[in-house]
Amino acid sequence: MTAAYFPIKLVVGLGNPGAEYTATRHNAGFWWVDQLARDAGTSLRHDAKFHGLVGRARLAGHEVWLLQPQTFMNRSGLAVVALAQFYRILPREILVVHDELDLPPGQIKLKQGGGNGGHNGLKDIQAHLSTPDFWRLRIGIGHPGDRAMVAGYVLKPPRKEEQALIDDTLLRAHAVLPLMLAGELGGAMQKLHTDEASRRPHKAAPTA
After folding, report:
1. Residue 72 annotated as binding?
2. Is 50 annotated as a binding residue?
3. Which pTM does this prediction carry?
């Protein structure tokens, strides 16, 4: 899909509400939105009509809404569609930040549209928006190796070394935030993925 040049007006971090989930892998999206709110000096406040914690932030010279649905992961779409419809925000102006099992810790990808990969939060957002064509910032958390172990895995905190890698990816995402807010999603994607590729270890050439 061709990258559309529309500024991001709503950043949605996915996670589960409650102190018991704060440090778990499934809340990686919350972590980034928390950081954006701190950077902007904005408080996220509960708004019943939007089913979540909401804040208006000024970042990199742009105004953007920040949202953390408080409906639990599998009902995230309720909050997203409520705020998007109220402020007339288009799906292509929405960035959803979420944990990604298919990427290892230390990797992060930006994309528009596509499938939901079995992620319950994405699945519900697609259903409520009636389109998959919103942007996704996919934060790698790794996979436990067995599909039956996924539910328990995402609801546990990352290991110390994994957390360090995830924190690094969030910093890299922050570096391309000005491009995303300006609508230069193609440039943000290229920079993020190029920077990531340069960090991966290169295999040594085989010796004769």
Report:
1. yes
2. no
3. 0.91
